[in-house]
Amino acid sequence: MRNAERGVLVGIVVAVGLALRLGFVLEAVVQHPLRADAGQYASYAKNLCEHGVFSLATTSPPAPDSFRSPGYPAVLAVCRGLFGEAGWQAGVVGLQVLLGALTVLLAYRIARACAGFAPALVAAALTALSPHLVVSTAYVLTECVTTFVVLLAVWLAVGATGRARLVTAALVAGGAVLCNEALVVLPFAIGLAMWRASRGRALAFVALALVPFVLWNVRNQVQPLAKSGSARVTASISHGSYPGMVFRDPRLVGFPYREDPEQPAFGANWQGLRTVLAARVAAEPWRYLSWYAVEKPLWLWRWSLVQGNDVNVYEVANSPYESQFVMQATHTLCWLLHVPVMLLGALTAVVALWRRRRENWALRALAGVALLGTLAYLPVIPDPRYLQPIRPLVFVLAAAGGAAAVAFVARRWRARETAALAPA
């Protein structure tokens, strides 16, 4: 196939991804879009624009804090500055639709660094069709922007042959960490994969990527804060500690902390967390071992969100996934493919990490990001929403692994035919 023909096919896949995202945001209506996390991000953006302070407070002047990571609120602040009070939400959604379409292209480019054209096109198609990725464009939440930044960092890193691109990749990876501080594992995953090929480049990449994170933490140490990020961490760990995400009442699955009499003291600080969790683990050690070692990883990569409905974080009215035949078909297709794709991606990641070939470090980097990203979210609520920025990389792993399996079977078949035709 000629390069021009390949370009047309890639363009069609990207256009499909753009059309699905546009179709969703134009038809669906998110109910109370600035609630919970989204409302907090909006408050940060407002304070950044009006006071130049990163703060969740509603008082004036607002006291600085570090309760949330600064990357996404900064993006919202830029949109607020460009589109004003009346139009910033529409501006954010429009930006996220564009970034979502570019994420499809990035998934293709990353896959081309690891595999041939056909598997790269499959990875891009899975990214374009994924309902989890499509609906994220409509929410004022970090996942859509963070997914784009993560894939941009990975693409720049795996294709870096010169110093300028490596530095850019490291700084973009640092930006991903500022979008979500749990992604501090991202530079290490890429650096470890790079290590055997070039230790100097690996160390330089990790060091540069951590600069934004270090500067953010210096800012948090040199001034008094009204609320710190550690308060959110301890609360999140306590919320994710309930086996099966149930305390007593199964009707509160996903929100067990709402009926726990030891909340909020349980998650208020590290001392409360240690005291309550240690006692509960001691009472049921095998149950908690199963929860953290087996069940939580499976929950993190399952289809339905823990705190949501199907793929929706917040309630959505007039969803095209419920009324439009084409979008219903893509939802059903992706739902049917979900388990095989996740299993194939996981198997490919294991093989890539096990074989540790120097020339195949790009695939090993994706495997490392998927593994360390999963481990980073084991302590908290095991909601698939949190691993969305890694989902396209799992699609790449699955496509590359599937192509490798097909090639292996084809080689064995040809070898068997050749042996059968050989003279005795």
Quick summary of this structure?
The mean pLDDT is 94.
Q: Give, in spatial order, the strands making up the sheet with the most strands.
A: 1-2
What amount of the residues lies in strands? under 5%
Count of discrete domains: 1
H/E element sequence: HEHHHHHHHHHHHEHHHH
Task: Note down, in words, how this protein is organized.
The longest helix is centred in the N-terminal third of the chain and has 42 residues, at about 70-110. This protein has a two-stranded antiparallel sheet with strand order 1-2. By secondary structure, the protein is mainly alpha-helical. The model has no long low-confidence stretch (mean pLDDT about 95). The protein has helices spanning about 5-25, 35-50, 70-110, 115-130, 130-135, 145-160, 165-180, 185-195, 200-220, 230-240, 270-285, 285-300, 320-325, 325-355, 360-375, 390-420; strands at about 30, 315. Helix 15 packs across helix 16. It is globular and about 85 Å long. It has one domain (about 5-420). It is about 70% helix and about 0% strand. The chain is built from 16 helices and 2 strands.
